Amino acid sequence: MDKNFMFGIPIIDHQHAKFFDFLDKLSEIPEEDEKAIIALLGKIEIYTKTHFRTEEKLLEEYGYNGFNFHKQVHERFKAEVATLIKKCKSGNMPQKRKIESSLSEWLRHHIVQVDREYRDFLKFHLEKRAA
Question: N or C: which end of the chain has fewer CB within 10 A?
Answer without folding.
Answer: C
